# Entry
Amino acid sequence: MKNKETVISVKNLKTFFYSDGRCNPAVNGVSFDVKSGKTLCVVGESGCGKSVTASSIMQLLPNNARIEEGEIVYKTGDSRGDIHIEKLDRNGKEMRSLRGKDIAMIFQDPMTALNPVYTVGWQIEEMIRNHENVTKEEARKRTLKLLADMGIPDHEKRIDQYPHEFSGGMRQRAMIAMAMSCNPKVLIADEPTTALDVTIQAQIFELMEELKEKHNTAILMITHDMGVVSEMADEVAVMYMGNIIESGTAKEVLGSPKHPYTEALLRSIPILGRGKGQDLNPIRGVTPDPFDRPSGCQFEPRCDYATKECSNRMPDEVNLGKTHMVRCIKYQEVSKNE
Amino acid sequence: MATKASIRRMNNKFDKIRQQEEAGLLKNKKQGNRTLRKLLKNQLAVTGAIIFLIILLACIFAPILTPYSPKAVDMGNILSGPTKEHWLGTDKIGRDVFSRILYGGRMSIAIGFGSALGCALIGIILGCYAGYKGGIIDSIFVRISEVFMSIPRLILVMMLAAIMGQSAGNIVLIFVLSGWGSSFRMVRSKVLSIREEEYVQSLEVFGLSTPIICYKHILPNALSPTIVNVTLSTAMFILDEAALSFLGLGVPLEVPTWGNILNAAQDLFTLQNNWWLWLPTGIVVSLFVMSINFIGDGIRDTADPTQI
Amino acid sequence: MSNNLREKEVLLTLNGLATYFPIKKGLFGKNTQYVKAVNNVDLTIYKGETLGLVGESGCGKTTLGKTILQLYKPTAGEMIYSFEDGPKNLANLSKEEMNVARQKMQIVFQDPQSSLNPAFTVYQSLSDPLKKFGIKSRKERRQIVGDLLEAVNMRREYMDRYPNEFSGGQRQRIGIARALCVNPELVICDEAVSALDVSIQAQVLNLLMKLKEERGLTYIFITHDLSVVEYISDRVAVMYLGRVVELAESEDLFANRLHPYTQALFSAIPVADINHNKKRIVLKGDVPSPANPPSGCHFHKRCFMCKEVCKEKEPELRRFEIDGKEHYVACHFAEENIKNA
# Structure
């Protein structure tokens, strides 16, 4: 039995963006735990702050953004104890040694994440040698094994090829190989399969699930696709306009959504196998301008359950049972609809 | 790499914005023209614009600022240093240097700006068409531009000066002939990427004619880098004119231009003893070119959406 | 559903359509190789239907759409379109005939960021096409643009705004309005909702369905998203490496998937239903390059049913009847699959 303890604990994280003399609270008080051997999917539409959350953990924010409040605690489980990531210098030595070694990240577009002028093998070896004190031969041996583990055919030939000689799916595998090279405890995947075809996406998912089982890696997956969530997630956090508005196990959130937004979102997407003319109920309106946000609950202007009270302030977190959390004062009415 | 001080400065700035935002002060703030606001915040560009305007206006209003004609010879008063009458002294045949700088500026700026505009015009017309059409037409234009860019400017100048004689018009012609290639390439590469945009394909689906798609719909989106290019190449051509005239290959000597004024300072004796003949002119030319470059860089930065 | 009962009227027939792109090699640009983006496609499009065209990237679905619109020249084959004065091949029309054809067919693009000219207002963007099709007075053009905006659930006043003032969903609706401005019969939707946020997708899909009813449009709906295709299409064609491998009525195809590729494709789709039975068929390897497709059946290298014959002989698209419905499959083992289905 593998332990499912918390590796990264994010509490009340606020990351704001500054541009044009304005301030955009892109992530506005987000809390969640990433547990080893589990996949947490953060799901939401564009602009909801899901990618910013991931970059905050990696301290990979652009210069015009900063972490305002809250804490990101990385539990090393060894002599280093608990590390407060938000207190580290962005480009400092400690942060750099965490990146890749303890927390690794894979991106949507593997082409931009791999350096086109070096061979794939060289880049992975470099990564290993950077973080660990090993010889060149050893690094190469480990790289070969990694590529083989990632299901890259002809890995002995592939190791000396350049990224452009790889197809999209192969590049993503190479990226994952690089991310897994130092056995990180946490793997952050930011829309890892959005640029890939579905049959290739299925391959990558298979691979990620295998990694999770084998290495007890904690996976934080950022996605906009509810389908991906239901396939991959153990736990789900739904984000809207900078807040997690509902979270819980995949079964809880997708099976019996308690927030009007989650409920409406699930009703607005066509589901394979339900046939032509299934009932689609689009969410009315558009996501608000981040510089002109609603005063209270961010979803209030588009919500069917909204009352006067909703525009007063952002509702507090309500815990339903052990894992299920929702931020809505009307959640009891939402659950009645089932 | 960000230094500690710059991080602190940024943090202070962020704190201030956040305070205002939380007080709700910024919510109804009129955004105005973002580009203009950003340009005005750029101190170098504003400084550049001020210097540019001072010199430009002084040249335009030269008759008001100085009583002397730039060509009036005063043999009784040659090579005098700065005096009350002649602020920047007189030259070897007694012409007032200050008025020569102002009137010369008119010509130099006209040559610089005219050449830059000419280059841009040819570059835009050919670049837009070649970039959109692609194929053989594109390759032909690219080869032609390469031929023109590969002829050394000095040889072209001497050839044309020998054939057609020296004149300001010829200088502009030479500059345009040897300089249109760079703006052509700039416009062409921009159009090459715009051509793939879906709105262009949609116009093709409607079956609109090439000139309409090319010059009416694509061109406005390809112009911004050219505008920066016009300012920067104006500065370059002013310097080129000065250099050519200094060598005696540019505008005929009797026409005052900044280059021709500097031409007088070719011998060591003048350089050592008559500083007022070359130093003020040199400073004005440098200031003017620098100010244009500042403005050009400022425009480029404002057009760059990744900058705060 | 009503389509089955009514007498089907053919709008467009593709016969052996092929579009190749040359790959330039060598100093003097000798064309030694071709990317066979669309390779020998036979397809019939009926009036008033929605034909879904699905497949992965590089399967030629977009090229097929753009070839029909004359954005690309076909290498071989014919496209017979039924005009009022009889059927004609789109590939060799005179200039006047082409102008007529341009009014019959339109396209809605994928990317709302790049489908509108950022330098022009909505009215300015739509003005030139309208002018070309004979609406000379400015007042009339403004009237038409306003009506179109209202048809796509937007306000008339928006016609004087620039694209950057609109959200992605709004831009996509403007893109639809533009396609409708010449009153087309056939609209090709090229990944029309793929770039939109999920909550906006449904708005646009429902709008497309509404417009189809109101205006009697015919859609070719190109997408990689099978859930969307199932929702909107009457018939679905599955493409792989430039060919149609399976074609059937939507409900029929979703019930009986006869081609192994279709089966794998369907099983790979993540379904946003927690109770959905997860059983993926994970295919080996990548989609081969269309410049250098495998011999025989293009799919054989990744196929889990591959036998000797698949490597040598290319299967034809054959017609079957299942419960009285037409079903086309290009697989040597179609009969076997029908038995199993």
